Amino acid sequence: MKLNNRITMNVFNSLEINIRKIRLFPILLLTFFIFSSKNTFAQTDDNLNTQQVNIVTDFKPIISDAFKLNDNPTVRDTVTVKPMMTYNILKKQHKTTIVLDTIKAAKMKSEAFEKITYNYLKVGLGNYTTPYAEFFFGNLRSKQWQFGAHAKHLSSNYTSAKQGNAAYSDNIVDGFGKYIVNNHRITLNAGYTRNSNNIYSYNADLFGLNNYGNKYINGIVDVGAKVQSLNIDSTSFSHQIAINYYTLSRADSASKINSENHFSITADISKLVDKQNLGAELSFQHWQNAAKTSIIQTFAIVAPVKFNYLKFSPYVKAAGSSWSATLGASIFQEFNAKKTRFFPNIWFNYLAVPDFLTIYTSITGNANANTLRSLSADNPFLFQDYSNYKTTTTLLDATVGAKGNFNSKISYHVSGNYSIINQMQLFNEYMVFRNLPIGSTIDMQTFNPANHFHTFQFTSVYDNTKYWNVKASVGYKLNQKLETTLQATYQNFILDNTEYAWYKENVNVTLNAKYELNEKLSISLKAFYIGKRKGLSSQAAFSSYSGLENSYQGYFPVYNLPAYVDANLSTEYRHTKKLSAFLTLNNLLNARIQRWQHAPTMGFWLMGGITYSF
């Protein structure tokens, strides 16, 4: 049933219904139906701002549609009371089990070892009739054995334009063997060396060319053995022991004049304790030098010279992430001189800036014997010297330096050193006559240059000195193709009794460079500059060659040896991995270099040859 009655909403808004308290509900309900059945409402004026609502369904009033108006004022409280809640977490872990899947091993194709060769041959030939040959032999891969042999020959028939015959030859044959057993490596080695040098240092203006063929010949036999532990267990002792022996025989053109024997044994033992390496080295060395002389046509046996050294050096080595250090000392006993010396042995290395700056310092000392072998190797024109062999003692050797890299291409190294040295060995020129009769060194009436030729040779002299030097070097490396190193040294000697350090230069500059043009061709350059040096000469003055007594007078002038530059250039062409060719150009500037007075070296000379591996 549709109702078209207008119902005023204000009437419903003013009703307050309370179902529980209304008792006349039926009466009111009847009245409602009576009024609702009329077609019009009592008020027909539509100015009451009423709203017409059309109900399209049966009206079913319910209680929830009504609400009670509250006449009392209310205040909204903004404070919210949060209940306090406490709780505990139950610490209980669920037991889990991890089951790993098995990964099958990857099968890789076996790679064959690169084939190696154990023979290497290098041969060449240069001007001045200079043949050269060198051969290396070794075994193939082995986990237990290693052995090899080596042989070399180099000689020249060089004749100096003003000095005469300056021929020389160097010959070496040596071999070694290594065997590993029970965490130890056993090494054996043996070798033979023969060197020959013509004596051509003399006054060519007085005597003319040297055609006498005087020479010194050194023959040396070396044997040695070493046993070294290879156990990497830090709880065990690391140890090694080495034994070496050599015998040297020296002869001139006529007969044997010198011999020297040397024996040494060295033992080293160490152990790692609380990350520190504690150890000690004990060594004993013995030299014996015997000589005979034929001066003034007589032979005399010179009493042998002996050296007996005992050295004990305990040490402690430690290292951290950026540093390493050695703290030790050496007790040195020289039995023949009845002297006991103590030397420091301190090293410290600190990596200040990784890959850029490493600082190091050391304070050490040592004693070394000047022997026939060491002196003749330094100066091939050494006179017999007989008993003139002494011990050079470095009381203090202090060094400080820094090294590192500016970048991936440029490296540097600078250092300074100060030393206090007792009996530093130097060379002096010595005039040696041939075929002079007894007393002729005083009475020169019978002297004749053609029959009484003399040479300038060298003997050892000693003096105490305070020595210091400064070194600097820089290296440059580019893409594995170019690699160069330039080093300069300035050194100074302050001696007690001698004005100059004979034959010692103050300035020394060296340059090494190598350039790989491609995989087959490479070029190498070695150049050096040696500064001026001083020498003390032994000269003879002759007022007349005959008819005058006492016409000979010896004097010792100081002379200057000029600075010189020497440069060597070599190139190699690798035709295959086994075959290559080389060419070496020596003394490019053709300088008349005098390392020793009156003994100029060869001028420009070249050598070419091949190398072959098989």
Summarize this structure as a short list of keywords or feature phrases:
two-stranded antiparallel ribbon, 28 strands, 5% helix, elongated, disordered N terminus
Structural overview:
The protein is built from 4 helices and 28 strands. It is mainly β. The protein starts with 8 loop residues before the first helix and ends with a strand. It has a domain at 9-65. The relative contact order is 0.08. It has helices at residues 9-13, 25-36, 204-207, 372-378; strands at residues 119-126, 130-138, 145-156, 159-160, 164-165, 168-181, 184-198, 215-229, 238-251, 256-273, 276-293, 300-319, 323-334, 339-353, 357-369, 391-405, 410-433, 454-478, 482-495, 507-516, 521-530, 533-536, 539-542, 552-555, 558-561, 564-574, 579-586, 605-613. The strands form 4 sheets. It has a 22-stranded antiparallel β-barrel. Strands 4-5 form a two-stranded antiparallel ribbon. Helix content is 5%, strand content 54%.
Poorly predicted segments: 1-22, 38-46, 294-299, 437-446, 543-551
Strand tally, please? 28
Radius of gyration, CA atoms, in whole angstroms: 51 Å
- DSSP helical segment count: 4
Arithmetic mean pLDDT: 81
For the largest beta-sheet, the strand count, sense and barrel status come to: 22 strands, antiparallel, barrel
Q: In percent terms, what proportion of residues is strand?
A: over 45%
Amino-to-carboxy terminus distance: 124 Å
Gross morphology? elongated
Query: Roughly what percent helix?
Result: under 10%
- Estimated structural class: mainly beta
